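Continuing the series of single-chain predictions for the mutant panel. This is the parent chain; the variants come on the following pages.
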Amino acid sequence: MLCKHPLVQEKIAQEVKEMVGSCEKGKFTQFVEKITERSSEKLHYLHAALSETLRLRCACKDDVLPDGFKVKKGDGVNHVTYAMGRMKYIWGDDAEDLLPERWLHDGVFRLESPFKFPAFHAGPRTCLGKDFGYRQMKIAAALLTAFFRFKLQDPSKEVTYKTMLTLHIDQGLHLMLVPNNNVTAHSSQEENQ
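Parent structure:
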């Protein structure tokens, strides 16, 4: 998603730089050690971008339906969160667009109802690892956007999907990682306070 939205990628990188800090080129371990729980909680735009990406490109498994319908072992059920993430009557006329800002209220991340955004399911079957999953995604995304920019190998090639039970990109998604030339050593916002 970041390849198609360089402005979002830059906003994430700027937030990571402000909240975590940056390190010398190639000092990945040193940078990851600076991503604390406290600094991770301040990455509101990154959290919003991850939620927006999950809304548009979910990686969910089927479970009990939100209306309480019980799915028995062996039943064939398809909970189409991919379609739900694009429904204009749920998300508005810009449902197809990547807009992390839709998750922010006065610059602070605000989670939507899990029945509207079921990437981690809802009700008594809500994923217990949701917060851990977000924390891991934030660490990985913060590290990668601090040191690299993502570009599509062929920006003109349309991304298409294979029709399968789980969503697969047809013929893969070929990316290039371009080193971020703005990587310099400086302290994080927390260290400066």
